[in-house]
């Protein structure tokens, strides 16, 4: 029996919702549609979803506010949709916890490809080691859980991916391009996005983020994870 993937679409444009729903059904997915952030939050609290497709401009709770709120309790993949294509808007969406960002107008096939990619990545089995210690932080990539000094700490899905890639290549340099490919980003998202993730990670795992010990920058090459 086929297991349908469930998508929560939060968008106040009925025509877009109708088109996305048709393509999702064709691809073997079930779509639940709401038109505002409050209704979306209500659906999210009651049901399991494999991905959230979220418009930036919404009545009530905005897209970035919605992502920031759910990231306190869930690492469900989030694909943000918006007519806004300014770099600062993209970076803000990523900072709040979105996994990918697509601008309107977009082709339905490209959108579905992004959706499938995010879901596959979220389901992929991560590093098999039971626990990884980075300073005061204990991480289970398999369970997507993190503790700092024994207390639960929240990492976004992209932060797990970056740490996993660095851990797999610990003490060796991982290029910017390789990290970007790991995140599955597209041409319109540049190095500034990666820098934002690295900055956020350092705040969480380093004692002094401005003088990092573990996540080190290798000038003109990339980054490496140094475990002491």
Report on this structure.
The structure is a single chain. The radius of gyration is 18 Å and the shape is globular. The protein folds into two domains: 119 residues, Response regulator (Rossmann fold, 3-Layer(aba) Sandwich); 94 residues, Arc Repressor Mutant, subunit A (Orthogonal Bundle), CATH 1.10.10. The chain is an alpha/beta fold and 228 residues long. The protein contains eight helices and twelve strands. The mean pLDDT is 85. The strands form three sheets. It has a five-stranded parallel sheet with strand order 2-1-3-4-5, sandwiched between helices. A four-stranded antiparallel sheet has the order 6-7-8-9, with no helix packed on it. A three-stranded antiparallel sheet has the order 10-12-11.
Structure characteristics:
228 residues; alpha/beta; Rossmann fold; Arc Repressor Mutant, subunit A; 2 domains; five-stranded parallel sheet; 8 helices; 40% helix
Give the amount of beta strand, in percent. Answer: 15-25%
Biggest beta sheet summary: 5 strands, parallel
CATH class of the largest domain: Alpha Beta
The average pLDDT score comes to 85
User: What's the architecture of the largest domain in CATH terms?
Assistant: 3-Layer(aba) Sandwich
Taking Cα atoms only, what radius of gyration do you get, to the nearest Å? 18 Å
């Amino acid at each position: 029996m086929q297991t349908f993937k469930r998508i929560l679409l939060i968008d106040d444009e009925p025509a877009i919702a109708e088109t996305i729903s048709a393509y999702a059904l064709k691809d073997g997915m079930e779509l639940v549609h709401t038109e505002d952030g409050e209704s979306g939050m209500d659906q999210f609290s009651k049901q399991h979803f494999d991905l959230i497709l979220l418009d930036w401009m919404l009545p009530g709770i905005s897209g970035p506010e919605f992502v920031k709120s759910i990231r306190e309790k869930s690492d469900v993949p989030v694909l943000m949709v918006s007519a806004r294509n300014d770099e600062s808007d993209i970076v803000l969406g990523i900072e709040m916890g979105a996994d990918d960002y697509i601008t309107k107008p977009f082709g339905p096939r490209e959108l579905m490809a992004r959706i499938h990619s995010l879901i596959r990545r979220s389901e992929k089995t991560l590093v098999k080691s039971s626990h990884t210690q980075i300073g005061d932080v204990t991480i289970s990539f398999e369970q997507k859980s993190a503790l700092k000094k024994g207390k639960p700490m929240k990492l976004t899905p992209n932060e797990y991916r970056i740490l996993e890639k660095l851990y797999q290549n610990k003490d060796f340099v991982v290029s910017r391009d390789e990290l970007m490919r790991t995140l599955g980003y597209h041409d319109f998202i540049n190095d500034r996005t990666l820098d934002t993730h690295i900055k956020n990670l350092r705040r969480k795992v380093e004692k002094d983020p401005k003088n990092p010990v573990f996540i080190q920058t290798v000038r003109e090459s990339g980054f490496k994870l140094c475990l002491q």
